[in-house]
Amino acid sequence: MSSISKSRLSIFLIGFSFAFLHTEQILGSPKTSINTVGLVAQKSFVTEAVQLSGPAVVTVETKRTVVSRNSVFPPNFFIDPSFERFFSQRKTQPPVSRIQQSQGSGVIFSSSGLVLTNAHVVEKAELLTIGLSDGRRFSGKVIGQDKLTDLAVIKIQGKGPWPIAPLGNSDNLVVGDWAIAVGNPFGLEKTVTLGIISNLNRNVSQLGISDKRLKLIQTDAAINPGNSGGPLLNAKGEVIGINTLVRSGPGAGLGFAIPINQATKIANQLVNVGKAIHPMVGVNLAYLMPNDIRDSVILSGAKVVYVIPNSPAEREGLKINDIIVYVNSVKVKDPDDVVDEINRVGVGKNISFVINRNNMQIKLNIKPVDINQFKLN
After folding, report:
1. Is the whole model's pTM more than 0.70, yes or no?
2. Does 241 reside within a domain?
3. Parent domain of 193
4. Cα separations (Å) of 223 from 29, 233, 315?
5. Is the residue at 215 inside a domain?
6. CA distances (Å), 250 to each of 190, 212, 246, 326, in order?
7. 209 within a domain of the structure (yes/no)
8. What percent of the residues of the chain are helix, what percent strand, and what percent coil, each to the nearest 5?
9. Residues with catalytic annotation?
10. In total, how many domains does the chain have?
């Protein structure tokens, strides 16, 4: 080996030895120690939130009988109507019944074993089984359901004590808050997804759904089939909503939940009264169009586009094309303001309406009725 190579090797070995000794001194010095606390993995807020409410999340399994009639001929087999009439007595088979099974989620919100879930989860169910997170399974009984808000309450047929999820206050939510969805999508139990509150007070009509009365929490936390009825939690682990639907097709990835304040109000009515109470005056409302503003002296309000025959609104003289500008002295910006005030006042109490009709102000008093008791004739 050349003298230059020996020299380089000596320098390397000396440098390595110095570095090793220097490191050994640092690590072994009684005056110096590494703070190992920072190296210990900390629990995330999601873990703590799920540990708090997760035990109260249940699986709701349903069974119902479905009867179907199947034709012995394939679709569009009969081109000639007379030929079809000839075989009309023989083209169908006897009714066939089968058991249809489905699964959703729910959350225990009462020490008496009451479960909050979606109405569509238990619709027409003949047999209910509630599965707890600890593996126990019990029969369930539907106490009440409300299709307008897609909410239902189930009573667990068993002996507690039951795990209970703490309820939050959905009125305190702001866009950007954390949102944790818990449920059993596709039968995969104890599934947790994380997102944020993307929007608030999303009217269900904006999603093309006309047979519900809901303002929803919008979230990007993944909500899939089977998540329906499960809780949406905040960062503290409190229930802030009941997962109800997910947008499919264009815009997929958006989930929606019923605010817990509205859900508990309906749940209490279902438990105590046996049904949900929905006040109505009997009108369909629309947002003002530019020509409505141009042709009148008002800048905001809700336009009446339909009046239900024999409704309180018709009896008190409300007409199509009237523009509602005040409800109980509350200035109306859009149709939601009218609906909110009617819901706040409730059934059987007069509501003062100020309307604009052909640029003339008219005052009317209308008393809402329960939509379930309203009859057209």
Report:
1. yes
2. yes
3. 170-262
4. 54, 13, 44
5. yes
6. 28, 22, 11, 38
7. yes
8. 25, 35, 40
9. 120, 150, 228
10. 2
Show the CA angle centred on residue 247, arms to residues 242 and 251, nearest 5°: 135
Cα–Cα distance for residue pair 58/135, rounded to 1 Å: 10
Nearest to 58 by CA among 112, 132, 110, 142: 132
The CATH number given to whatever domain includes residue 318 is 2.30.42.10
CATH code assigned at 210: 2.40.10.10
Tokens in use for 325? 């500008």
The token duo for 329 is 């002295």
pLDDT in tens, the chain (377 residues): 544 444 443 433 334 333 333 434 433 444 444 454 454 557 899 999 999 999 999 999 998 887 766 655 555 554 455 545 554 545 556 677 778 888 899 999 999 999 999 999 999 899 999 999 889 999 999 999 999 999 999 999 999 899 999 999 999 999 999 999 998 877 777 889 999 999 998 877 767 676 677 889 999 998 887 888 999 999 999 999 999 987 665 555 788 999 999 999 999 999 999 899 999 999 999 888 888 777 667 788 999 999 999 999 999 999 999 999 999 989 999 898 999 899 999 998 999 999 999 889 999 999 999 988 876 65
The residue to which tokens 């859900």 are assigned: 263
Tokens of 210: 């006309």
Q: ∠ CA 215-221-223 to the nearest 5 degrees?
A: 75
Read off the tokens for 290: 């530019």
